[in-house]
């Protein structure tokens, strides 16, 4: 993976973290999955991780799936 591609993945994760924070949501494990970068032809995956019930409820509401 090029430095440009790696920076693009990091930027997306940062933007997602910022957007979630604005919605009052924290995903402590949010980051880039290192295993997905270890492939011969890297295909970066974003690890969303786990969250508590309150964060799950806020995420559901932010996505418009809960009144």
Short description:
The protein is mainly alpha-helical and about 70 residues long. It has helices at about 5-20, 35, 55-60, and strands at about 30, 45.
Can you lay out the helices and strands and say which pair or pack?
Layout: H1 3-22, E1 31-32, H2 34-37, E2 46-47, H3 53-62
Antiparallel strand pairs: 1-2
Could you explain the architecture of this structure?
The protein is mostly helical. Helices cover 51% and strands 6% of the residues. It contains three helices and two strands. The protein has helices spanning 3-22, 34-37, 53-62; strands at residues 31-32, 46-47. The protein has a two-stranded antiparallel ribbon with strand order 1-2. The longest helix has 20 residues, at 3-22. The chain starts with a helix and ends in a 5-residue tail after the last helix. The mean pLDDT is 86.
Main sheet: which strands, in order across?
1-2
Overall pLDDT score: 86
| Anisotropy-based shape | elongated
Largest sheet: 2 strands, antiparallel
Could you list some keywords that capture this structure?
single chain; mainly alpha; 67 residues; 51% helix; 2 strands
């Amino acid at each position: 993976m090029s430095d440009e591609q790696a920076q693009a993945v990091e930027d997306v994760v940062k933007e997602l973290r910022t957007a979630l924070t604005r919605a009052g949501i924290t995903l402590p494990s949010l980051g880039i999955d290192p295993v997905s970068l270890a492939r011969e032809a890297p295909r970066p995956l974003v690890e969303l991780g786990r969250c508590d019930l309150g964060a799950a409820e806020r995420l559901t509401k932010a996505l418009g799936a809960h009144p």
